[in-house]
Design brief:
Layout: E1 8-11, H1 17-28, E2 32-37, H2 41-53, E3 57-62, H3 68-82, E4 85-90, H4 104-121, E5 124-135, H5 136-139, H6 148-165, H7 168-173, E6 177-183, H8 190-198, H9 202-210, H10 216-226, E7 235-239, H11 242-249
Parallel strand pairs: 1-2, 1-4, 2-3, 4-5, 5-6, 6-7
């Protein structure tokens, strides 16, 4: 029997891309899944429908992660719908949007992540886990430069990772473990598409440097695996392309 059978997971930013693919994988392992979206309810409901059609359990919750009342309601839905909260996957990120204000990247990628952790910790069961999803471009930003178009996002995501990592002791006191999953640019994601539009050839350049870029489904499989992997709290799982970044940190 899967370690996740009967457990409940909240996955932020899970109406599409890596979040949606991760949700389907976790549901396939028997987890109850809370799908989170900011605006696109039909897209989130479609993910729920696909999970239910495959025999899984899921609900969709609209929540703007930069609004504390929304975050609280999102976490509470896990308890109200399924009786527990056992896994919190912090997948939502952004900051390349032009219409949400200059400080949006930091509000979403740092402040909202910390707020989501606080709301989650009030409800997470002992033995629960928090998984933070990030990119190598963000994780290594203090050692390795990234494209100017992505730097603001990268620095805000790194700030979010640092803020969460500093709370590992607080999580441990509640019996909750913490894992970071960092990946290279992912084929087919919104961020990769926007970056390639802003800097034509960027995706091909990363593909050559890394040797291969993971697909959404391949990266989601790594995130899902870390939901129940036997690793120490604070573990950082580097997925695909990390050798290139690690080599550059040594120069």
């Amino acid at each position: 029997m899967s370690a996740l059978a009967g457990k409940t997971a909240v996955i932020t930013g899970s109406s599409r891309g890596v979040g949606a693919a991760t949700a389907k994988l976790l549901a396939g392992q028997g987890a109850n899944v809370v799908i989170n979206y900011r605006q696109k309810a039909p897209r989130a409901n479609k993910v729920v429908g696909e999970i239910e059609a495959a025999g899984g359990k899921a609900v969709a919750v609209g929540a703007d992660l930069t609004e504390s009342k929304d975050v609280d309601a999102l976490m509470q839905t896990a308890l109200d719908s399924f009786g527990s909260l056992d896994l919190l996957v912090l997948n939502a990120s952004g900051g390349m949007e032009a219409d949400l204000g200059e400080d949006y990247a930091m509000r979403l990628n740092r402040d909202a992540q910390s707020a989501a952790l606080s709301a989650g910790l009030e409800r997470l069961s002992p033995g629960g886990r928090v998984v933070f999803v990030t990119s190598h471009q963000a994780h290594f930003i203090d050692q390795v430069e990234t494209m100017p178009e992505y730097e603001q996002v990268a620095r805000s995501k790194r700030a979010g990772e640092t803020a969460l990592t500093e709370r590992v002791g607080e999580m441990s006191e509640k019996g909750v473990s913490f894992v970071v999953v960092s990946g290279d640019m992912i084929e087919g994601t919104v961020t990769a598409t926007l970056l390639n539009r802003a800097r034509p050839g960027a995706l091909e350049e990363r593909r050559e440097a890394a040797g291969k870029l993971y697909s959404v489904e391949e990266f989601a499989a790594e995130v899902a695996a870390m939901a129940s992997a036997e690793v120490e709290t604070g573990h950082v799982e580097l997925v695909g392309g990390a050798d290139d970044f690690l080599a550059r940190t040594r120069r």
